[in-house]
Fold:
Amino acid sequence: MSHHSPPRFLKRTSPPHIFTLIFLTGLSALTMNIFLPSLPAMADYFDADYRIIQLAVAVYLLVMAGLQILIGPISDNIGRRPVLLWGICLFALATLGCIMARSVEAFLFFRMSQAVVAVALVLSRASVRDIFPADKAASMIGYVTAGMAVVPMISPAIGGVLGEAFGWQSTFWLMFALALVAFALTWLDFGETAVASGLTLAQQFRQYGELLKSPRFWGYSLASATTSGTFFAYLGGAPFVGSHVFGLDSATLGFYFGVPAIGYFIGNVVSGRFATHFGINKMVFWGCTLNTLGAGLSLLLFIVGIGGVNSFFGLMALVGIGNGMALPSATSGSMSVRPHLAGSASGLAGSIMLGGGAALSAIAGMMLTIETGPNPLLWIMFLTAAASVVFIALVVLRERRLTM
Structure:
């Protein structure tokens, strides 16, 4: 550990406890996917085309990507704690707006505003990097996101059941309640971890140039963006495939959505256990490879005519394992290129990842019809996953050349 004292739960003068970090990252993950089984019902409620209501995923990711560019430098400048508290407060208000919306346009505006919960994701990771060195940070991020993975593992199932029983608004009421808990936890437990940069905010933003000139930063960020892009494309297209192609109700679809989260949990455990031993590059490479294998096998089964609902959702477990192995190490790698810019690097890398995810989610939603089945979605997932292997391989080759 560095200059920070050991975490003490519910003590504001010490670094945040791991439970708080897990809860904050879990809230950001839950917000992304808990309502997905209710998307078809939401389209009916607002009398909107599925392609329009599906923007609740794509636009959310796009705005979250933009916000991450701002969150990192601001938190490097004024601290993690105040940015977290303000962000969670605004998220709670946006969630109430989603519940009260009476038109699809109003709903999408407030859903877009919910993206401010990006503070929880960015600053939980950055605080880990504040406290630990690179390989240890990758391991700790793995453990944090392993615990967090329990949330997206069960949240679509919970969302599906809630939607069936009480309507789609019930999932947003749950988000609101959890936002209040997150605010209380942050207030009571999240001691400041950032060291004051001594720079103005304008100077902080200009330091993005230092990151953008680094091939290693680009390599880790693009590997992260493309391997997670496989999953984001799935988020954009799988609700349509499940409900319209396979005829699943929202509760059943919610349980199927838990499959990749189970894989992600396993991958995070592997990352937490072995990242320090094997190093971040190997973890990213093998994670990206497994991700590609899962998407490729699923595509192959549908090409030869033997794919079905179980293969489509079941092989997402491999995609989840690959993401769980690759993302903590790729995140740590991008933040370790310039350790004094950890918050900025976390935000910029997250922005690149979510910007790509927003585009892939929107494309997947637009390309799917009942006639095409899941094939367009699977092609997008496979090609994106294959690109991730190329990007991390380029990082490895560059480091080998530099050490020769």
Remarks:
- The two ends are 31 Å apart (CA to CA).
- The chain has one domain: 18-194+201-403.
